[in-house]
Each structure stands twice: as structure tokens, then as C-alpha cells.
Amino acid sequence: MSIVSLPEIMGPAFEQRYGVAAFNAVDGITMDGLIRAAEESRSPLIIQISVSTVKFWGAEVIKDTFTHLAKRVAAPVTLHLDHCPDPKVAQTCLELGWNSVLFDGSGLSYEENFQKTREIVKLAKQHGASVEGELVAVGGVEDGVGSEEEGELLPLDNEVEFIRETGIYCYAPPIGTAHGFYKAAPSIRYDRMQQLVEAINVPMVLHGGSGLTDDVFKRLISLGAAKVNISTDLKKTYADGFRNYLEARPTEYNPLKLIGAVRGDVVKMAQAYFKIFGSEGKA
Ligand SMILES: [Zn+2]
């Protein structure tokens, strides 16, 4: 069984300064492609799922699909719930045995976010799971969650206190990256990530990974980003995969060939990220 906890997969990455790619899978095709890619590249992998995807398929179906695909490979794989502002959804996933959740209380006041995050951490512990925390909203809407603008920045001390006192395992820092397609190159606050890691030595999570340059990835990973989220690029690979295949073969009606082609595109995309993030061969 290669299904592992978030600390088991992120701990070595944080220590050795490589990044574990966390892709937002949307179905069995993407999940299968990602897990095949991890196995072929001998790379650790985080499969993360948006709340809207949970609502589409159901948390149990996703967990079962993940378990059946992941337990056949040797590469370590973790199932994570992405940006979840609803404690009930997080609870459902934790009770079903998901490995970790991002409780996203960035839309709440500091106090409310603090309290709710702490409660989720407590609940997660009971299920042997871990929590990613978020204090300041990452810019850009992702699957209906979040806002266009990055949230208002807080003093470093507040972020450090939040991380330490809530007991979260890893933290999504506001460093100028954003969800969706970048319209212009983002201005990244490397200094903030560095200060956070120096102050608290907790693994960081890079949100808004799609569209960043290799140099930006490498620099942030070297500073302590141990989980690197890729959602938009997977969605694009998936949609383009279907479109390109069907446009080139308008009279092809073999679904397995179509799905197989798209799955192959997902494998290639994932493997390219494993190389950039330095996780290839680490499993
Ligand atoms: Zn995100």
C-alpha cells in the first residue's frame, strides 16, 4: 500500500528541498494518469480534490477510486482536499479516511479562522490526518472558491502565531501567486516565504503554480515550498486533450482510444512537473 500521510510525503521534500506536485484531479482519468506518471517517474504525488469536484462525484466515490488506483503502485500517494471553507465537507472527507484537508478560513475574521482551523486540526488528528491552513486569501477564484484579489496582508507575527497555535502541518502563505491563468508575471514575495520558514520551520504550500517559470518554482522550493499546487494546467491539458484528439479524428468513436490519449497527455504533463520540482526518482 503506497497511500501515505501528508507529513510522510511532505516531510522529506521539505528537508531535502524538493517539491511534491499536488494536482487537482477531476475524475478517474486524471487520477489514473497522475498515479501512472508518479509510478513511472518514481515520484511522490499528492492528488488533491476541489470542493466542487467532491460535490460532483461524492467524497466516497473519490476516496474509493483513489484507493483502488493508488494501492497498486509503489510510489507514495496522498489524497488531499483543496480549499475547503466548509467544516462539514472537511469532516466528511476526514471521516472517510482522506489523508489531509486545506481548511480555508481566509474569508473569516482572524479569530474565527483560528478557532475553526483548530477544531479541524483536532478532528483530523482523531482520524490520523493532517491540515493545511490558510490565513490570507490567495488571489484568484478556483472552482468557485476565493476572490479575485489577494487578501490583505498581516504582520509576520500573526502568521507565525496562527501556524504555531492552530497546530496545522503546513501553510499556504500569501506571496503574490494567484489561481487561474496569469495575465502578467506575478511579483513574488520570496522574502516573506523565507521569513516564515526561518521563524517557524513548517513546510509551505505554493498555490497558483500553473504558469510560473521553472526559475520561480525552483527558488520557492529551495525556500521551503514542499507542496506545489497545479490545477489550471491540468484542466487545460485535459480539455485540450479531448479537443485536439476529436478535431484530428472527427469520425473516431472509440471512447477508450480517446480516454487513453487524454490520459497519456496527463502523464506527460505530470512528469514534466516532477522533473522541474526535483521529485523525480525520490520515491
Ligand atoms: Zn489554491
Explain what the structure shows.
The structure is a single chain. With 283 residues, the protein is an alpha/beta fold. It has a single domain (6-238, 265-277), classed as TIM Barrel. The protein is built from eleven helices and eight strands. It has helices spanning 6-16, 28-41, 51-57, 59-70, 87-95, 110-126, 156-166, 190-200, 214-223, 232-248, 255-277; strands at residues 20-24, 45-49, 77-84, 100-104, 130-134, 170-172, 204-206, 225-230. Strands 6-5-4-3-2-1-8-7 form an eight-stranded parallel β-sheet. Helix 2 (28-41) packs across helix 11 (255-277), helix 7 packs across helix 8 (190-200) and helix 10 runs antiparallel to helix 11. The radius of gyration is 18 Å and the shape is globular. The two termini are 13 Å apart. The model has no long low-confidence stretch (mean pLDDT 96). Residues 83, 138, 142, 179, 207, 229 line the site of zinc ion (ZN).
Question: How are the SSEs ordered, and which strands pair?
Answer:
Blueprint: H1 6-16, E1 20-24, H2 28-41, E2 45-49, H3 51-57, H4 59-70, E3 77-84, H5 87-95, E4 100-104, H6 110-126, E5 130-134, H7 156-166, E6 170-172, H8 190-200, E7 204-206, H9 214-223, E8 225-230, H10 232-248, H11 255-277
Parallel strand pairs: 1-2, 1-8, 2-3, 3-4, 4-5, 5-6, 7-8
Helix pairs in contact: 2-4, 2-11, 5-6, 7-8, 10-11
The chain binds zinc ion.
Zinc ion (ZN) is lined by residues 83, 138, 142, 179, 207, 229.
